[in-house]
Design a protein that fits this description.
It is a single chain. Helix 2 packs antiparallel against helix 3. The protein has helices spanning 2-19, 26-46, 48-72, and strands at residues 105-108, 115-120, 123-129, 139-146, 149-154. The protein folds into two domains: 2-81; 97-154, OB fold (Dihydrolipoamide Acetyltransferase, E2P) (Beta Barrel). The chain contains three helices and five strands, in the order αααβββββ. Strands 1-2-3-5-4 form a five-stranded mixed beta barrel. By secondary structure, the chain is of the alpha+beta class.
Length: 156
């Protein structure tokens, strides 16, 4: 029975870590169910005190492995393409916090109502209009970063 608990726990942790790379939810749910099953079996097999210790140990181990996974994932073979490492499409490093783009003027590539695309310094950006819709081809001023895009306003 102890080997079943160990196998369920290991499969659960590995499945949850793989869910970070292979989205879809199935591996995450299966991994979570395996960890719950391992915890429940440890209570049945070893009693309350040992079951509680095993459950806490599984939680701590899972958190530790998750931390290591997030720290070293981008260094694993074949995973570099899955992680944005702070470079733009040309391979140049972006300025800290994209602060250099704030205040610059670009051009609306699409109608921005309330979101769209704009170009500045030969690079495309997802943008959100600060207030009213902005027609395609209009000059836009980049105001600030907002989530994955930029807030822009019609420039004069």
């Amino acid at each position: 029975m102890a080997s079943t608990i160990l196998i369920l726990a290991l499969f659960g942790i590995v499945a949850i870590l793989l869910e970070l790379v292979l989205p879809g939810g199935v591996l995450g749910v299966a991994g979570g169910l395996c960890l719950v099953a391992a915890s429940a079996l440890s209570f049945v097999e070893f009693g309350f005190s040992a079951g509680l210790a095993i459950t806490v140990g599984l939680g701590v181990l899972a958190l530790l492995l998750f931390r290591l996974w997030m720290k070293y994932f981008h260094r694993l073979p074949g995973t570099r393409q899955l992680v944005l490492l702070g470079k733009n499409s040309r391979g140049d490093a972006r300025p800290e916090g994209d602060a250099a783009l704030a205040g610059k003027v670009g051009t609306a590539l699409t109608e921005i109502a309330p979101s769209g695309k704009a170009v500045c310094d030969d690079e495309r950006f997802d943008v959100i209009a600060e207030s009213n819709a902005i027609p395609k081809g209009s000059p836009v001023a980049f105001i600030r970063r907002s989530g994955p895009g930029w807030v822009v306003r019609l420039s004069e």
